[in-house]
Amino acid sequence: MVEERRFVVDGLSLSYKGLFEVEALLNLVYAWLRNKGYSIAENEVEEKVSENHKDFTLIIEPRKKITEKVSYVMHIEVLMKGVEEVPISMQGHKYRLEQGRVDFMFHGFITTEYEYEWIQKAYVFFLRALFSKFIYGIKNLKYDGGLVEEVNALSIEIKSFLNLYRYSPDKRMPDVTPEA
After folding, report:
1. Cα angle vertex 104, ends 101, 110, to 5°?
2. CA–CA separation, 64 and 73 (whole Å)
3. What is the average pLDDT across 138-143?
4. Which pTM was predicted?
5. Do 96 and 86 meet the contact criterion of CB atoms below 8 Å apart?
6. What is the pLDDT of residues 36-66, one digit of tens each?
7. What CA–CA distances, in Å, run from 116 to 3, 13, 120, 125, 136?
8. How far is CA 68 from CA 35, 113, 137, 180, in A?
9. Are 107 and 11 in contact (CB under 8 A)?
10. Is 47 helix (H, G, I), strand (E, B) or coil?
């Protein structure tokens, strides 16, 4: 089979700097993708550890089959820089959170799979291209909105999760103090 990719979302980014929990953040992303019916493939996982902090790179490509021939594919790059553990005390309890910078980059594309017979001869390839562009292509545009919605919904979910940590502790809970 031959797979054809058409980009729908290119380069949607999300950045955050502050306190967060790495494990909870990644669990949120994976749970959201599983709940929406995506199968997840991790392409790259890299971790660099220095004396005071860690840097993470994670690239995942979740895929969701829409029809027999059409699939949604997201390419998500997660970069975490300068991540270090920070002990905090909140309402008499001690917690360990991470502090650093997190950058997400989202790409979304729609793949269509064609049987090999469609590309064997030049005139058949030409006819398929015409058919795909002018007849079937119009029908395929209906899938674009669904992918854009899902990429935006995931981005909003992550942003909402990270914003829970953004509020300064003294406004949210008066007795939160970082430990020395």
Report:
1. 175
2. 6
3. 64
4. 0.78
5. yes
6. 999 998 788 888 888 888 999 999 999 999 9
7. 10, 36, 7, 10, 18
8. 20, 8, 16, 57
9. yes
10. strand
- Residues 6 or more apart whose Cβ sits within 8 Å of residue 96: 85, 86, 87, 88
Q: Which two tokens stand for residue 57?
A: 């790179």
Structure-token pair, residue 23 = 């494990």
Cα 91 → chain centroid: 34
Place of tokens 């002018």: 134
Kindly state the average pLDDT of the residues 136-150. Answer: 75
Give the tokens for residue 130.
């015409």
CA distance 175 to 78: 33
| Distant-in-sequence, close-in-space partners of 132: CB < 8 Å, separation ≥ 6 | 112, 140
Average pLDDT, the chain: 81
Alpha helix (H) residue ranges in the chain: 22-35, 122-131, 137-166, 169-172
Domain ranges of the chain: 2-170
